[in-house]
Amino acid sequence: MEKPIVTLGRGTARSAWNYCGQSLAAGFVDGYLSILDSSDHSSSSFTSSSKFKYAIHLYLVWFIKFPTLSYSKLCKSGLTLWRLKKILTMEKQAASKVCCVTGGSGYLGSWLVKKLLEKGYTVHATLRNLDDKSKVGFLESLPGADTNLVLFQAYIYNPHEFKHAIQGCEFVFHVATPKQTADTQSSQKIIEGAISGVRSIAESCLQSPAVKRLIYTASVLGASPLTKDGFNVEFSVKESSWTHVDASFASTHGLQHMRTYTVSKTLAEKEALRYNGEANANGGKLQVVSLACGLIGGETLLSHAPSSVAAMFSQLTGNLSTFMGLEYLEKLLGSIPMVHIDDVCEAHVFCMEKPSMAGRFICAAANPTIAQIAAHFRENYPQHQIPQQLMGEEKEGIAWDKSKLVKMGFVYKYDMENILNDSVKCGRRLGAVVSIDQ
């Protein structure tokens, strides 16, 4: 065992006793901790989890490594004593499994955090900025958040920041992904950011003795039936189908951001699956599950309609820019694979709770065409006049084989009608869809 270069003093050890119920000496060695029993300075018989070590790490950072660091600066970094106490309190909840959710303030990420807390799990959720009260506040208000949720600051373009959130977790859900903004980052930066983010998070999983499984939130955009020439299609789509990222699809300027997102998700998913079966720190093998999710609809915890939900009801609002997203999906995928927010989060939890699971799985409950979606709206929302150019072309959609996940035992609760209707309800609640009396 490496010799510690820092040893807790008597007063600090007494404080550690107060927090931990055990007097400790701890060493900070190359960013990691060597924890010793202070009574005999030998290797402790107490099997400390990585989360416990990280808690002591926070303590050391505060009182030893940065003795002049102000409380306000420490709060901004997320390394507060309050978080230390909270993590140590969670340590005592031995029955609760610990998992990490990256991108915890996003549409899918926040619903997944909510779902995990409801099921009694301890959650480490990452956000880009802990000073953003609009995103921190609604997460901290979730039932169970006061005892079972710890927030960490981590940015996808600084992927090394995720390692602290991953420490001590058995399961890691990598939901966060870089997206193009109006400020306009280059397409290459977004693609490289997605890949390097996956790589860094997977490496952190391998280095953490506690992590058993990495579950990556992929997209059906990575499973196009289009052949490499971009003009012909395969007979059906299944898990072995992959989008040809160098194909000539979506070359128009208006959809360049969609093409960038498609390429980034496709290459990032392949990078994630590359780590499946890699040896981890505890001598086992890391399991990697990739969920290729369809367009997500339904309700939201956010204060605005997410882009995927807005696309669902774009024919009712007549919003051409969001409707173009549906057109892009149909051209690339042959139909619109879709899934309800509650189902997709249940699928993530399902992939975590299986004793053993790895590989790629398509996660979509239905795959209608644009014309079939329009037909549903015309029948159920006749007060809305759908513009002719948004009605879609009458044609047969491409078949999607979604049976692999179902054969594992997963059951979808929401069909196409439920997904579309709940999306409209969400839009009306948020004022994105105007209610029109018949």
From TrEMBL:
Give the residues annotated as coiled coil. none
InterPro entries of this UniProt entry?
Answer: Epimerase_deHydtase, NAD(P)-bd_dom_sf, NAD(P)_dehydrat-like
Keyword NADP annotated = yes
Q: Which SUPFAM superfamilies match?
A: NAD(P)-binding Rossmann-fold domains
Cross-referenced Pfam families: Epimerase
Write down the CDD domains for this protein, in alphabetical order.
FR_SDR_e (cd08958)
Q: Which UniProt keywords apply?
A: NADP, Oxidoreductase
The keyword Flavoprotein appears for this protein: no
What molecular function terms (GO) are annotated for this protein? oxidoreductase activity, acting on the CH-OH group of donors, NAD or NADP as acceptor
The record, for PANTHER family, names:
ANTHOCYANIDIN REDUCTASE, NAD DEPENDENT EPIMERASE/DEHYDRATASE
Protein name from the UniProt record: NAD-dependent epimerase/dehydratase domain-containing protein
Annotated source species: Hibiscus syriacus
